[in-house]
Amino acid sequence: IFLMQVPAIQQKRTVAFLNQFVVHTVQFLNRFSTVCEEKLSALSLRIQQIETTLNILDAKLSSIPGLEDVKFEVSSANVNSVTNGPIAQAATDQQTAGSPEAGQNNAQEEGLQKTEVVTENVTTVAKDPRYARYLKMVQV
Q1: Residue 127 falls within a domain, yes or no?
Q2: Residues 6 or more apart from 67 whose CB is under 8 A from it?
Q3: Sign of the torsion angle spanned by Cα atoms 40, 138, 82, 101
Q4: What is the residue-level pLDDT of the chain in tens, covering all 140 positions?
Q5: Could you tell me if 72 and 119 are in contact, meaning their C-beta atoms sit under 8 angstroms apart?
Q6: In this structure, is residue 72 part of a structural domain?
Q7: What is the C-alpha separation between 51 and 60, in angstroms, rounded?
Q8: Counted domains in the chain
Q9: Which GO terms describe its cellular component (predicted)?
Q10: Residue 53 domain-assigned (yes or no)
Q11: Directed axis angle between helix 11-62 and helix 132-139, to 10°?
């Protein structure tokens, strides 16, 4: 096909196609942004409900006498499994960094572990089946 012999497309037709494309694209983007906004709003509401529930549970637990001294241990494996990708690697890199604060934290953790070994025979909240659901929720 010799392109010099092909007639040009009419300008009105080109403008109509361009306008139709712009209108459909804008409609799609408006629908997409509306759906995204609705989903984010629903997610924000759900997060607020969860925070409220956690605050209520925390208040209920703090109202129980004798639980002020009780501490439970969260394993670092659970914490690392929640994070993903480069963030987890950065967190482990920061933990393994040879800073003086990290050394002090490690020494404190070792001291806490030694005291936990001594108090293993004592019944703690972590071992109490009544609080198992709450502790599992805290770990999650």
Answers
A1: no
A2: 61, 125
A3: positive
A4: 788 888 888 899 999 999 999 999 999 999 999 999 999 999 999 999 999 999 999 888 888 887 767 676 666 555 444 444 444 444 444 444 444 444 444 545 555 554 444 444 556 767 777 778 878 878 87
A5: no
A6: no
A7: 14
A8: 1
A9: WASH complex
A10: yes
A11: 140
Residue given tokens 């509401």 in the structure block = 45
Under a CB-based contact definition with an 8 Å cutoff, are residues 30 and 84 in contact? Answer: no
The CA-atom distances, in angstroms, between 41 and each of 27, 58, 102 are: 21, 26, 40
pTM here is 0.40
Q: Is 105 helix (H, G, I), strand (E, B) or coil?
A: helix
User: Domain residues for 24?
Assistant: 10-66
58 vs 68: CA distance, rounded Å: 12
Which two three-digit tokens encode residue 24? 């459909």
pLDDT value for 123: 64
CA torsion angle 17 21 24 29 (round to 10): -170
